[in-house]
Task: structure prediction
Amino acid sequence: MVLLAGLMIWDRESAFAGNLRGKVVDREGHCSQNTRVELCVWNASLSKWVPVAFAVTGKDGFYYFTNVTQGQKVLLRVQGQLYPSPESPIAVANLRENVYQDIEPIVR
Result:
């Protein structure tokens, strides 16, 4: 019975989460491998964007974030630079499991 309750909670939480993926490339369009990408959310009490998770790009330049709160506004930080601009944060969509919201490539 306890296990069932735990599964119900997990299902309920995942119903309000989204998955993000994107790619980091250099100015020539080549994949940027082993690049740290931080997922940032707005912290009102600090009045700034703060990192809450990070991913590292693979050989193909892609990074992935899973189970991000649906509707949350996020930015990505690569080498101290925020993407997209703080005036246009990414709104996390609620998509089916194993479906990713594609983010525009980050050119660095």
Remarks:
- The beta strands are 17-25, 36-43, 48-56, 62-69, 73-78, 81-83, 90-91, 101-102, 106-107.
